[in-house]
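Quick one: sequence plus flavin-adenine dinucleotide SMILES, need structure tokens.
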Amino acid sequence: MDFSLDDDQKAIRATVRDFVRKEVMPLEAEVLRRERAHEPGLTRDELRELQLKARRFGFWGLSTPQDHGGMDLPAVTQSLVWTEVGRTFVPFRFGGEADNILYYANSDQKREYLLPTIEGDRISCFAITEPDAGSDAANIRMSAKPDGDDWILNGEKTFITNGNDADFAIVVAVNDADRGARGGGTTAFLVDRDMGWRSEFIPTMGEGGPASLVFDNVRVPGRNVLGEVGQGFELGMKWIGRGRYIIPSHALGIGERALQMALDYAKTRHTFGQPIASYQAIQWMVADSEVELEAARWLVLHAAWTVDQGRDPRHAASTAKLYGAGMINRLIDRVLQIHGGMGYTRELPLERWYRQVRLLRIYEGTDEMQRLIISRDLLRGYTKVGGHLE
Ligand SMILES: Cc1cc2nc3c(=O)[nH]c(=O)nc-3n(C[C@H](O)[C@H](O)[C@H](O)COP(=O)(O)OP(=O)(O)OC[C@H]3O[C@@H](n4cnc5c(N)ncnc54)[C@H](O)[C@@H]3O)c2cc1C
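Reply:
Sure thing.
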């Protein structure tokens, strides 16, 4: 068993680390200042400029196939890159990416939606959640009724990331309520904002914020069905599944940076004539954080490796997502505690991370949904205890 990285992985990680340190981290003070003033940390143009700069370094489309101009990196390498990006709280991500399910588009749709999204000329959002259907996504109610060659969409989506900025939405709606979501009764549609849906910002604990999308008799041409009629729920689950090892990969970067902050602070902050690092109470918080960070790292890399092996990654990805999301919440809480009153101020990014990472236990499958998947896999014998080594 070899736990080391190969030369390619090391080189890519080093380049990304350098890029984040030189080009992204210097923006942190300004991002914090803007967010405190309730402005976006980065404007759309600034994000694009950074992404184009990264493109000149060769970083464009981490997961995008090479025939679409991307890098098509193996999942393990993508995981390493996301960890590096997680070290900064600047809301940066590499450009050249599109939602994985846009590759189910036909050639006209690819020209109109996929390619401009990869280029960053259009912004998408993915909408399945509704006010009465979150974890229970199969219970969605938004209706899609045929009308000649068109479809008429009615209903509401909620908590949609990028919902306020998106030029178009990938929306899952019910075309046949009798068949239900799992029986082929839902369909995914590509719906331009100017077809008539409107969005409303939802204030949250975190910076930025999702939106609700309202569809009131929105007419969508038949050519805008993504994939097949009846394939909506299946595509929705594919979209959600992709993030499950990326989310904890990003959390690892946050954890590494925050734990380093704790070490630095503990060595320089003195109480009762000694650095707080000399107290066992602090040492234990450091040790627990390191152990959990390492445990999460190997779960995450194992999940990514499972993807690269072409095996079914769902069990490993749920395990990594569940543990990684819990780990980063516990770790940030300890690091904030080590910083005492300073940790609670808005001078440091700790309270920001504290709010931000809470989301990780909720979106793209709550903790409880991950537990449901993991236990169901075991109870039904789909995965054996210790089975991944067989
Ligand atoms: C900031 C943010 C961004 C988001 N982005 C998107 C997006 O881009 N697109 C999109 O479609 N959605 C998005 N979501 C929605 C997100 O996926 C849902 O919020 C999530 O799936 C949980 O659904 P819910 O909020 O309806 O909670 P509910 O499903 O109502 O769950 C409430 C509680 O009950 C628990 N629970 C539910 N069922 C069970 C069960 N069977 N057993 C045990 N416990 C259970 C849950 O785990 C949770 O603790 C986003 C949400 C947020 C907050």
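The first strand starts at residue 124 and ends at 127. The chain has a mean pLDDT of 96.
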